[in-house]
Amino acid sequence: MRQFALLSFLTLIVFCSSTWAQPDKMITNRDNYFWQFGIAWTSTDDDGKELNPMPIDQLHGLPFPSRLYADRYIYNGWSAEGVLGGQAYDATKKVNDSIGVNGLLTYFDVALKYSFYKQLGRGAIDPYLGAGAGFTFRSADPKQSAPLLTPTVNLSAGCTFWMSKQIGVQAQGVYKFGLVDILGKASYAQYSLGLVYRIEKTDGYKSDFHKPKYKLPRKPSRIKVEKQTDES
């Protein structure tokens, strides 16, 4: 429940900040990025204990990256993200109320994110909050007490630390509420640490009146006036 309260509070802050912010009429395509792509190492907390949000000794993890994601910038700090990933269960660690669960947990998620990058001066620190939905697939192990297929509602919080204009290190935590049993066996948390590559926008905003067909000729046309001669 502590995770639920914390993530709900952070999400509320995002929407309030977006609502109260002054309109920015000077936004151009250079204000942020075009696309972000990343890979990450993940650890999954699927032990079913809501009051113990991050039990280090019970996290399921892999030695190689298992999360792929793409992020498309929309407008004024908002972006949309798609995620595809998987996690192998460690049979020595607890899964809800069972030990010895084998198989895979795979997932596909989409999220709407809000970044505080502009508010912090577009520096090295880029924190964000997100909310979205997804589907989680679990292996049909007899010891697995969670459903085979679970739709989820997700709340996330993270931060990207930019080492250059294009490359950064991203850390994130996300809680996924299983819609088949809210805060039950289908719900779980994930933590990730990975690398992200940012493709920046290179063209500024230009209105239609900047296009060549709307341009006026630079040199004014000359009007010829016939000279009149006096009759003698």
List the helices and strands and how they pair.
Blueprint: H1 2-20, E1 33-45, E2 60-61, E3 67-75, E4 78-88, E5 104-115, E6 125-138, E7 149-162, E8 167-178, E9 188-200
Antiparallel strand pairs: 1-2, 1-3, 1-9, 3-4, 4-5, 5-6, 6-7, 7-8, 8-9
Structural account:
The protein has 232 residues and is mostly beta strands. The chain contains one helix and nine strands; from the N terminus they run αβββββββββ. A hairpin with a 2-residue loop joins strand 3 and strand 4 (78-88). It starts with a helix and ends in a 32-residue tail after the last strand. 28% of the residues are buried. The model is unreliable at 1-30 and 205-215 (pLDDT under 50).
Keywords:
single chain, 232 residues, mainly beta, Porin, eight-stranded antiparallel barrel, 1 helix, disordered N terminus
The tally of domains stands at 1
Indicate the mean pLDDT: 80
Low-confidence stretches: 1-30, 205-215
Distance N to C terminus: 109 Å
> Major β-sheet, in short?
8 strands, antiparallel, barrel
Radius of gyration: 27 Å
The SSE order reads HEEEEEEEEE
The main sheet orders its strands as 1-3-4-5-6-7-8-9
CATH class: Mainly Beta
| CATH fold call | Porin
Instruction: Just name the CATH architecture.
Output: Beta Barrel
Topology, number of strands = 9
Write down the overall geometry.
Answer: elongated
**Percent of residues in helices:** under 10%
**Structural class per helix/strand content?**
mainly beta
Strand content: 35-45%
